[in-house]
Fold this protein.
Amino acid sequence: DAGITQSPRHKVTETGTPVTLRCHQTENHRYMYWYRQDPGHGLRLIHYSYGVKDTDKGEVSDGYSVSRSKTEDFLLTLESATSSQTSVYFCAIRSLDRGGTEAFFGQGTRLTVV
Amino acid sequence: DAKTTQPNSMESNEEEPVHLPCNHSTISGTDYIHWYRQLPSQGPEYVIHGLTSNVNNRMASLAIAEDRKSSTLILHRATLRDAAVYYCITAGAGSYQLTFGKGTKLSVIP
């Protein structure tokens, strides 16, 4: 199994508070991704990273920021959590950004904003 | 990346083969076909991928039509552990993201 660890696995937070989710990999893969999964929407890309300090937005990036100061860690921050950000968040990694390269996913973080 | 079409759900009896279809009629010549599956309460799991030729691995086989407009994921003997949502995805060169649709929910009947 690919070495991806997401933390925390579950979190309940209050509206308006900042929240940071962590994705840690031991594979030394260059590309890292944050997705959210909601009923009826499937997986949607929030942000991705193509190297240390190199990140870009995905299709649902509003309200989220990311940072990657080390190859192995990709952090997702909700600056001021809202109820619409209640979701399951998945981190993924890929060694190359090419069509023939598979992605490996973490186990997910279930975030509830009350 | 090309849009894919899959049936919403399928059923299979345990220990029988399962053929999961996927249409990707707008696929380009350099797009790979990927399959992932997601078991309940888990993250998506890579199953198999291919470009033109049929592919086999320990989990499944991938049969790709000659015109590449469709493909079929084959589970040779379904087990209860294969009950999951199966996603068919196309991914081209420089595709920074994998776009997941709603997939096919496979139920395995004991």
Summary: The mean pLDDT of chain B is 92. The beta strands of chain B are 9-13, 18-23, 32-38, 45-50, 55-56, 61-64, 70-75, 84-91, 104-109. The interface with chain A takes residues 30-32, 34, 36, 41-46, 49, 51, 90-103 of chain B (CB under 8 Å). Chain B has no helices and nine strands.
